[in-house]
Amino acid sequence: MGAHKRPSMLSKAGTVPLTVKSALTLAAVGATVLAPVGATEAEAATLSTNALRIAASKAGSPYQWGATGPYRFDCSGLTQYSFKQVGKRLPRTAQDQFNHTRHIPGFTRERGDLVFFHGRGGVYHVGIYAGNNQIWHAPKTGSVVRLERIWTQSVSYGRVNG
Fold first, then answer.
1. Which of 23-29's residues contact partners 24+ apart within 8 Å by CB, and which partners?
2. pTM for this one?
């Protein structure tokens, strides 16, 4: 019968019909890539991309101050929840998440990095970078988790280590 072929990870996983929401999510975050064993930066990128995908899947979930999911979120609750689903722990507040991540220059930001918004009192908001100068975030009371352009230059970026 010739050479044996092993099925790829994708063929083992099967297929799931796409809904409009999942199609929009895929368009917003792009495809994920499997990281080779021992590739620390690649593993961190894959974890972050998967966390981004999870955040995007929560589109439309209501904002609630102090909520950490799975159905309602505040800004840091969404980032904490998304990374927890991929096995990474983040502290609870935006400021503590800022203190916990590896700070990176904006020109090196990648999908799945955290975007921190700064004011006079320190970090007041956080979202997950989705590419194209946009973030997934839970903005404020009365709103829902959504994709939105970064509206200020008073931001910094942090990478969650793999």
1. 24/59, 25/53, 25/56, 25/57, 25/59, 28/56, 28/130, 28/134, 28/136, 28/147, 29/53, 29/56, 29/111, 29/130, 29/131
2. 0.75
Q: What is the pLDDT of residues 35-59, one digit of tens each?
A: 334 446 666 678 999 999 999 999 9
Best CA proximity match to 125, nearest among 110, 141, 109: 141
State how far the Cα of 55 lies from the Cα of 25, in Å rounded to an integer. Answer: 10
Catalytic, out of 75, 100, 103, 118: 75
Domain tally for the chain?
1
Residue 100 annotated as catalytic: no
Domain at 70, CATH number: 3.90.1720.10
User: Among residues 82, 118, 68, which one has the least CA distance to residue 98?
Assistant: 118
52: its two tokens: 């981004």
Mean pLDDT of successive 10-residue segments in the chain (162 residues)? 37 35 41 42 81 98 98 98 97 98 97 97 97 98 98 97 78
- Measured in Å, how far apart are the chain's first and last C-alpha atoms? 42
